Backbone:
């Protein structure tokens, strides 16, 4: 099973040879050209942070075949795009048809489960960070109705961020905290979209998100319970007073993909948990049983290996 999350932070030429990623770049100390190789079967994620790097079309095709999520970055070195595999599932049309034919009560119950778990994880985040407000959030989680008719999610968000980052914090501000969270969210969003495509789902058709301008509505729905995991790392492990989001900060955020999380009674690293969640989502649709959907639970934070 793939397990590596690779970041390219310096100018390099990326190509493919014998089903291996080949990276050619200058050594930082000697200035000599060096070559590194990584088996494609070991890679889950490739982050192209350096904007001067060159990648061959043959490698792009191979990355898609191996279902590797490839992230591109903007001038601020924040993820702004992701390359996903296309039509990888053997029963893609059947899966997509079942997605389109979901009955409204099932959709509303699935969204209820997603929102409830997200708020429960927000409460866990406050607990782990030593902040108040966790009990109030758990009480709100218990009030989430089918389809979140009472908009409990938005009420919880206002309370949650106030307790986690202070009353002055605004989610719309262009500051370190928001940049760090957006970076982590983009990584998880890409992984959810990758798994949805691999299972044959159309990521633009969501449960709650329905924007015509968003190709990842379903990914945005299913990633919601994972957001507090990013929030916890930002609040507890990064210096929120930093002026910029540095390479070290980004490496730490990349490690979130290797964090261990609970899905029902089993532990997975975060990327594997996303695959298991999407698999359970497929099962919930086919059986019309919302309780079949397995969602992550934030407990303690343990990171795996990152390079």
Residues:
């Amino acid at each position: 099973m793939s397990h590596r999350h690779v970041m390219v932070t310096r100018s390099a030429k990326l190509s493919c040879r014998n089903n291996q990623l080949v990276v050619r770049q200058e050594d930082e100390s000697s200035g000599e050209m060096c070559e590194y190789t990584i088996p494609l079967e070991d890679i889950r994620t490739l982050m192209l942070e350096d904007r001067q790097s060159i990648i061959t079309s043959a490698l792009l095709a191979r990355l898609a075949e191996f279902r590797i999520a490839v992230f591109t970055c903007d001038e601020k070195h924040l993820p702004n795009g992701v390359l996903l595999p296309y039509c990888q599932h053997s029963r893609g049309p059947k899966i997509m048809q079942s997605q389109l034919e979901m009955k409204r009560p099932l959709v509303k119950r699935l969204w209820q489960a997603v929102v409830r778990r997200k708020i429960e994880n927000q409460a866990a985040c406050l607990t782990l960070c030593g902040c108040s407000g966790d009990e109030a959030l758990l009480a709100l989680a218990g009030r989430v109705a089918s389809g979140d008719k009472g908009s409990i999610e938005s009420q919880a968000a206002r309370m949650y961020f106030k307790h986690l980052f202070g009353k002055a914090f605004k989610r719309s501000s262009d500051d370190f905290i928001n940049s760090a969270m957006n970076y982590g969210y983009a990584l998880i969003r890409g992984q959810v979209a990758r798994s949805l495509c691999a299972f044959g789902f159309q990521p633009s058709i969501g449960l709650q998100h329905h924007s015509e301008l968003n190709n990842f509505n379903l990914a945005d729905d299913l990633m919601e319970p994972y957001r507090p995991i990013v929030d916890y790392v930002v609040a507890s492990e990064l210096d929120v007073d930093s002026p910029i989001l540095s390479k070290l900060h980004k490496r730490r955020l990349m490690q979130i993909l290797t964090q261990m999380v609970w899905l029902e009674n089993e532990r997975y690293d975060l990327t594997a948990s996303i695959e298991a969640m999407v698999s359970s989502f497929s099962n919930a649709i086919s059986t019309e049983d919302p309780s079949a959907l397995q969602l992550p639970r934030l407990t303690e934070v343990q990171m795996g290996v990152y390079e």
